[in-house]
Write a structure and sequence with these properties.
single chain; 8 strands; Rossmann fold; alpha/beta; about 20% strand; about 250 residues
Length: about 250
């Protein structure tokens, strides 16, 4: 079966509520962290000012949903995580990117939404990140991973790493917080062959591209119109220029 992909522009909760129960084989996503400042003024700054080197001169579109305080963010996460769980199949894995500031809040939200929390994966962004004298580098982000109920040990999935080392993107970015494609190709391999991956926060579509390149179908939701357009363009370009490049699954 040829993998298929769809990009839906809209609010995550509204779109998730339109899906039928038990539709997807996994959730892999990178939501807004809403952790760019301790005070309301800082949180309400543009995402470019919070997360990019060029600050307000960054040419990439700002993205929505990043100005909540921690409690509001956690309650919002519970809401979308509950809907994501409903539309996933029994045993489906979930992988959600997060930073150290919101790590606990996300873990609590996932448990509140009745996902099993199975562990934390580390993304080592390498020494390329900005050094500060007398401080540890902010070199790592995290992925909390879990599942909708127990995951069978007989799934056709290889043994995966617990830590991935890929440098952040400094050139050619399509999104202010874009993850490396190679990293996302590694992460999607937690999913069984033939399943459809759901990304509720698709951004510029990196997870969707990774899914297609690894032989999975995928559906992405993106509230920011500019990024939904970019994601669709990425998918269209991929489908026109190259076939899927499936890795061999080794057990």
């Amino acid at each position: 079966m040829t993998p298929k992909c769809a990009v839906i522009q809209g609010d995550v909760l509204e779109v998730l509520r339109s899906f039928e129960d038990n539709t997807f084989g996994a959730v892999i996503t990178d939501p807004p962290y809403a952790s760019g400042g301790l005070h309301a003024k800082d949180r309400q700054a543009t995402t470019a000012a919070k997360y990019t080197k060029n600050k307000t001169k960054n040419p990439l579109p700002n993205f929505e949903g990043d100005s909540k305080d921690q409690l509001s963010w956690m309650l919002w996460c519970v809401a979308w995580l509950r809907e994501a769980k409903r539309v996933c199949k029994k045993g489906a894995p979930i992988c959600v990117f997060i930073d150290f500031r919101q790590l606990d809040a996300l873990k609590w939200a996932m448990q509140w939404a009745d996902w099993l929390v199975n562990g934390i994966v580390v993304w080592d962004k390498t020494e390329i990140v900005r050094p500060q004298r007398g401080r540890f580098r902010s070199q790592c982000e995290f992925i909390i991973w879990g599942s909708k109920g127990a995951m069978s040990l007989k799934r056709k999935v290889p043994v995966l790493k617990g830590c991935y080392r890929y440098s952040t993107l400094n050139r050619g970015k399509l999104h202010q917080t874009q993850k490396p494609l190679a990293l996302m190709r590694d992460i999607v391999r937690i999913v069984e062959p033939g399943e459809t991956i759901l990304d509720p926060f698709a951004g510029s579509g990196t997870t969707l591209v990774a899914a297609l390149q690894e032989g999975y179908s995928a559906v992405g939701i993106e509230v920011t119109k500019e990024y939904a357009t970019i994601a669709q363009k990425q998918i269209d370009t991929l489908s026109q220029t190259s076939p899927t490049n499936n890795r061999e699954v080794t057990m």
